[in-house]
Specification:
By secondary structure, the chain is an alpha/beta fold. It is built from twelve helices and twelve strands. Strand 11, helix 10 and strand 12 form a beta-alpha-beta unit.
């Protein structure tokens, strides 16, 4: 591939092992990388290491945050940082015009504040080309967790998949391949039709309360409280829940624990179980996105007589 990012200055803020595989690919494409929170990584002198957000935003053409984004306090996940990295309003206000911010998931408060400041925020985690590819390590990791948490085989197990989205459908395929008896809980007619086409059992979400007793393993992908107290009370105490929904998940974990039901929240599985694959996926996605958004910004700046 040609050096499509030649001369582009990219700031990589924090992250985990995915960034360790992403960054060499970006360097290979000609990008200049400024890292914040990567000083303990194996990247060494291949990138510039910034000491603060101020150093980063002064130099970068675009900012890349982790897929996880930030927590409610603005703390950025940074596995290889010596110090906490906090992304607050002061940092947001220091971002120059025309510098896009790429992030996996942006919290509503961040999107609202960025909109007021006319900062372009591009969320990548929910894009089809990312989510579908990431569904593979997510599903593999979820099944691995289920195998470790149960004393039965996946084969012949009654496995429920809640939410037949991109990760849910990949899970269904893998579970079928392992010989599980798969039941999909869905709401939308199109999802129900897709599950029918795949040859698995189907229930509407409204039927979950009366059917959940059959489940040995429940894989939840719904980012809302679907496994509430009523549903949990009807579950077998030997059942296992693997919740793949974004934090805080779709399970009443405290009540599940009280009932003695094993329930595990498992967000960000691609970066945990297959960081190399997840990093390579991002390396496919980011270059054209970065070029597209920077080209738009630069054209707008030229038109307005502004130099970025």
């Amino acid at each position: 591939m040609s050096a499509v990012l030649e001369g582009v200055r990219l700031a990589i803020i924090g992250g985990d092992d995915r960034e360790i595989y992403l960054i060499p690919e970006l360097l290979r494409l000609g990008a200049y990388i400024i890292g914040l929170g990567l000083e303990k990584s194996s990247l060494g002198n291949s990138i510039e290491h910034a000491q603060s957000f101020k150093n980063v935003v002064e130099k970068a053409d675009a900012l890349i945050f982790p897929m996880f984004g930030t927590d409610e306090r603005g703390l950025v996940k940074a596995k290889y940082s010596n110090l906490p990295i906090i992304f607050n309003n002061d940092v947001l206000e220091s971002i120059p015009p025309g510098v896009p911010l790429f992030i996996g998931w942006a919290r509503p408060a961040l999107k609202k504040a960025a909109q007021k400041l006319h900062i372009e925020v591009i969320e990548v985690a929910n894009r089809d080309e990312v989510a579908i590819l990431n569904s593979i390590p997510s599903a593999e990791g979820a099944i691995q967790m289920a195998m470790e948490a149960t004393n039965i085989t996946i084969h012949s197990s009654n496995s429920f998949v809640l939410g037949p989205g991109r990760t849910g459908m990949t899970l269904v395929n893998m579970l079928k391949g392992l010989g599980a008896k798969v039941t999909v809980a869905a709401r939308k007619p199109a999802d129900i039709a897709r599950a029918l086409e795949m040859g698995v059992s189907i229930i509407e979400c409204s039927e979950l309360k009366k059917e959940i007793w059959k489940a040995d393993i429940v894989f939840n992908t719904v980012p809302a409280l679907i496994l509430d107290r009523e549903i949990l009370e009807n579950m077998s105490r030997e059942a296992v829940i693997i919740d793949l929904a974004s934090i805080p998940g779709g399970t009443d974990f405290e009540y599940a624990q009280m009932l003695g039901i094993k329930a595990q929240l498992a967000p960000g599985l691609p970066g945990i179980v297959a960081p190399k694959t997840a990093g390579k996926i991002l390396a496919q996605i980011y270059p054209p996105l970065i070029k597209e958004h920077l080209s738009q910004q630069w054209k707008a700046a030229m038109k307005g007589g502004t130099h970025i």
